């Protein structure tokens, strides 16, 4: 019976982050980079067409990044958002990132979150969620996004979590479409 | 920047599972054991008053077990259900437990799932969810269960996941109450 589980980023992403020096002057630059990760994830065959990253709001500094690693890690929780949030918590050494004494952190995701990742966001201490593709872009090729409350955006906002959607949507939706056309596993 | 994260069960639970031989003839016996884990988790000071376990339906064999390990692991995802599901997937070597060719697996939880754990259940391949305490028992002492669709039980059932609630509810709610009375961290 296993008593430990772990998720490791694939070698290509570890290599990319090891010598990371890029800076991100704008929301568009951050999202473009995240969508680039989703593309590389399918090119390297390490998972589905989704990526996410956590940035410090004021500085624009990258805290953690990930891609969809469900099949790669053998864990159904290993969506891009769940793994990016967890790696950000490890990097900063606390299980709730934003607090009244600390900075504000933003989650950039190449697609609107599924029901699980949506539920994870308030517990993680994110101050903002920024999404590119819509859930219907994922649903259109067969991905299951789960059963989410229809007012999920308003519910996050009521908790003080800013939400921005459709940032570079067509670019991110294009990666999802490419994955489907290449016959990638839909789960 | 961290590129790996892991969750390990605390030593007391690893020791308990290492030489595990107990069998569970009934749903009540399974739930009583899971509630016992939630109680031991607060006695050992390793987390909140919640526990969960995955059993193979036909044999009643225990596949994996966990407790709430958010503070212990430094990860906001480390709820009892998320960690039990992930450990079960590691134990059986697949990211979706039930399939048309394999057995059926049940998740026993000492409390109804929060929004994140609820969203995780369909991805994990569980065939059934059995809960003891209600979410209002957790909310009553200040735990945040998140924003769940009001028809979450019906939505799981529509996906073919059986749901049973209130099994030994008062016993599990009592552990939550004890934790709160002792001044345990509410997060």
Overview of the structural elements:
The structure is a homodimer of 187-residue chains. With 187 residues, chain A is of the alpha/beta class. In chain A, 42% of the residues lie in helices and 18% in strands. Chain A is built from 8 helices and 6 strands, in the order E-H-H-E-E-H-H-E-H-E-H-H-E-H. The first copy, chain A, has helices at residues 11-18, 27-43, 70-73, 80-92, 115-124, 135-140, 152-158, 169-181; strands at residues 4-8, 51-56, 62-67, 105-111, 128-133, 162-164. In chain A, strands 3-2-4-5-6 form a 5-stranded mixed beta sheet. In chain A, helix 2 packs parallel to helix 8 (169-181) and helix 4 (80-92) packs parallel to helix 5 (115-124). Chain A starts with a strand and ends in a 6-residue tail after the last helix. At the A-B interface, strand 1, helix 1, strand 3, helix 3 and helix 4 of A face strand 1, helix 1, strand 3, helix 3 and helix 4 of B.
Binned, the helix content of chain A reads: 40-55%
| N-to-C series of helices and strands of chain A | EHHEEHHEHEHHEH
- What structural class is derived from the secondary structure elements of chain A? alpha/beta
- Which regions of chain A are unreliable across 5 or more consecutive residues at pLDDT < 50? none
Radius of gyration of chain A: 15 Å
Please report the total strand number of chain A as a whole number.
6
Report the average pLDDT across residues of chain A.
95
Strand share of the residues of chain A?
15-25%
Distance between the termini of chain A: 26 Å
Number of helices of chain A: 8
Rough outline of chain A:
globular
Give the largest interface pair and sizes: A-B, 56 and 55 residues
* Biggest sheet descriptor of chain A: 5 strands, mixed
User: What oligomeric state do the depicted chains represent?
Assistant: homodimer
* Strand order of the biggest β-sheet of chain A: 3-2-4-5-6
